[in-house]
Amino acid sequence: MNSFKEKCYQCSGLLSGLGIVIITLLLLAQIIGRLFGFIVPSAGDFAGYALAASTFLGLAYTFREGGHIRVTLVIQRFSPVPRKIQEAVILTLSLALLCFLSYACSSMVYESYIYDDVSYGYIPVPLWIPQLPMAIGIIALNLAVLDAWIMALRGKTPTYSRHEDALALEEI
Questions:
Q1: Which residue range forms the structural domain that includes residue 95?
Q2: Which residues form the Tripartite ATP-independent periplasmic transporters DctQ component domain (predicted)?
Q3: Beta pairing partners, 27
Q4: Structure confidence at residue 92 (pLDDT)
Q5: Per-residue pLDDT tens digits for 58-95
Q6: Is 1 helix (H, G, I), strand (E, B) or coil?
């Protein structure tokens, strides 16, 4: 089960990177198009969709790798027991917020699909298509935080915290 979760987080990170590649290709197509006198219709829209997908799909992977910004100057000064309590409280609050966000994003995708919402621009795109990676990314982050929360409640050190501690030791 553990390797499956890790593969899901890595897949999320790879898809995030693919979004960055798509943005690069769209911008390159626009530049070449301007040189040869043609436009790439809705390139800005598609680049925006790829940016949103890349951002949200990268959240779970970044969380697992300890890449999110945290106040480690304060956290690392705690002794082990208060630090574990603080981690559990913060993860509980984060999990509650992410459960709400997962529901809201999934509901938004569903409503866009039901009501046949489309984007404005040269190429009308059903809005549920660019919204789906955002919902998937939030759900993946929700699962990553749930995993860390369970580890914290069991008294283990969450994966992101191990990465942060290793980075802190490298800086010394």
A1: 2-171
A2: 23-154
A3: none
A4: 95
A5: 999 998 887 776 666 677 778 888 888 888 898 999 99
A6: coil
- At position 120, the amino acid (one-letter code) is Y
Q: Residue with structure tokens 């999110």?
A: 68
Query: From CA 102, how far away is CA 150, in angstroms rounded?
Result: 18
Backbone region of residue 41 per phi and psi (left: phi > 0; alpha: psi in -120 to 50; beta: other values): beta
| Total tally of structural domains belonging to the chain | 1
**What tokens appear for 152 in the block?**
């914290």
How far apart, in Å, do the first and last CA atoms of the chain sit?
Answer: 35
Burial pattern 39-64, b for ≥16 Cβ within 10 A else e, equals ebebbebbbebbebbbbbbbbbbbbb
Q: Nearest 5°: phi and psi at 142?
A: -60, -45
Using DSSP's 3-state secondary structure scheme, residue 118 falls into strand
The three-class DSSP label of residue 23 is: helix
